[in-house]
Amino acid sequence: MAHAVIKLEENNFSIPEGYGRHAKGYSRVPFIDHSTSAAAVHMAHQIVQLEPGGYLEQCVLAYEKSFYMLEGEMDMMMDGRSYRMGPGDYALVLVGSAHAMRSSSGNGARWMEMIAPQPLAKAVGQDTFFVGDFDWPEKIERFDKGDARTRFVGHFEDAQLPPPGNLQMDGYTGDGARLISQKMMVDRNFGSAHMTMFVVEFAEGGGGSHHTHPFEESYYFVSGMADCEFEGKKYIVEPGTLCWTGVGAKHAIYTRGSEPLRFIETQTPQPPARQAFRFDSEWRIMRERYPD
Q1: CA angle 57-62-65, nearest 5°?
Q2: Which of 208, 190, 186, 184 is nearest to 261 (CA)?
Q3: Sign of the dihedral through C-alpha 8, 14, 18, 21
Q4: Which of 50, 257, 262, 270 lies closest to 156, judged by CA?
Q5: Which of 119, 117, 65 is CA-nearest to residue 92?
Q6: Which residues pair with 253 in a beta bridge?
Q7: What is the rounded CA–CA span in Å between residue 102 and residue 54?
Q8: Which residues contact 267 (CB under 8 A, 6 or more apart)?
Q9: At residue 281, what are phi and psi to the nearest 5 degrees?
């Protein structure tokens, strides 16, 4: 089975293996990786939280990591520059970049995180390196979008979503998905070599019809209700649920009810320039004209 539907459970947060000596008040719920699904070979997806007073020491990773802030505030250092991150903010940590995190202003924080290439099993090799502490600056502010030195961080606002229409993105343009609005956050243009992360919203009556991909996808639902079908199995999906589909797993997602449906979507490997989607609807005439 190359799909998963997982509801966030508060009692599933735990300290990652190997982090105990290098973090305080830092925990996560792993939704998808090699330990949760044998079919997941490209990505790891998790919800991470930082308690008040918590921190993650400076570390270097042998993979890319993107995250989207859901709740609270935290301070993040990346390659010597520090930023205060809040809801709607997102960032990309590149392979080999040094980064650290800590709670700010006595607040905790929670964010959605996607990692690619998928972290290695411990028996295979090491891919996280804690490289020692550093001195946080006395004053940390939100990132300045007008400063040309600000890179790999951004902020999403509702006004950035275009009016709903047909799907248009790298690798596909057509009516396989309708009444859809998208805002790309992390992609090649942003600096990633491995992943995409973007906001999707379907208006009432909208959705993406049955299709497959040559890459893995995840969808973390943040508002509205969805009728989903993954590999022939039907689900009613509510906010706080993570859905994942593997390569070739046929799926469809539709808005349920009158409230717009919104989720944070990720993809890895990055979609090809062409044939990123194979919608059943677009091959219907060929199937009818040339049946087996």
Answers
A1: 70
A2: 208
A3: positive
A4: 262
A5: 65
A6: 208, 228
A7: 6
A8: 195, 196, 213, 215, 216, 217
A9: -60, -30
| C-alpha 52: how far from chain center | 24
Structure-block tokens of residue 141: 């502010």
Q: Please report the domains of the chain, with CATH numbers, ordered by start residue.
A: 10-155 (2.60.120.10), 158-289 (2.60.120.10)
Whether 138 and 112 have beta carbons less than 8 Å apart is answered as no
Q: Per this entry, what is the length of the chain?
A: 292
CA dihedral 162, 280, 41, 109 (to 10 degrees): 30
Q: Are 191 and 152 in contact (CB under 8 A)?
A: yes
The tokens for 280 are 């059943």
Q: What is the pTM of this model?
A: 0.94
What's the rounded Cα separation, in Å, for the pair 197 and 44? 13
Query: What are the pLDDT digits (tens) for 81-134?
Result: 999 999 999 999 999 999 999 998 778 999 999 999 999 887 888 999 999 988
